[in-house]
Hints:
Structural class: mainly alpha
Number of strands: 2
Number of helices: 3
Helix content: over 70%
Order of helices and strands: HEEHH
Distance between the termini: 90 Å
Oligomer: single chain
Radius of gyration: 34 Å
Strand order of the largest sheet: 1-2
Low-confidence stretches: none
Strand content: 5-15%
Number of domains: 1
Amino acid sequence: MRPSGKSRNKNRNNGRRPNPGSVINRVFDSAGPEGKVRGTPQQIIDKYQSLAQDSQLSGDRVSAENFQQHSEHYARLLLEAQKAIAEKSAAQENMAENGHTSKEKAQSDNSEVKDLSDVSSLKEQNENISLEQNIDRA
């Protein structure tokens, strides 16, 4: 028996990869230098960029750079999620295209098989005719 139900639920995703689309719409809690910033990656990027601009205008270059680095972090997260979504949709399109062409190829292969069966039946007919002609000559 298991000692408790807690150990069973430690890994909530059970080895599944996270859905990249969920990162785009997911709400993050960012613990930045000015306190928590909450929102989607795009909202957090916008917030940190505005904080960086405000710091730059006030003359605090270190703080502005810090906010800019936080903004870049979430921009990378968002970019990776968008790339993953684009690759997934491209793969699905390729699968759809390949599925369509493989059906066409299967149909052409079937027609070739029919043609080959016609050829083999013609060969059999020719062999039968030549056998009949050899029998007639003898």
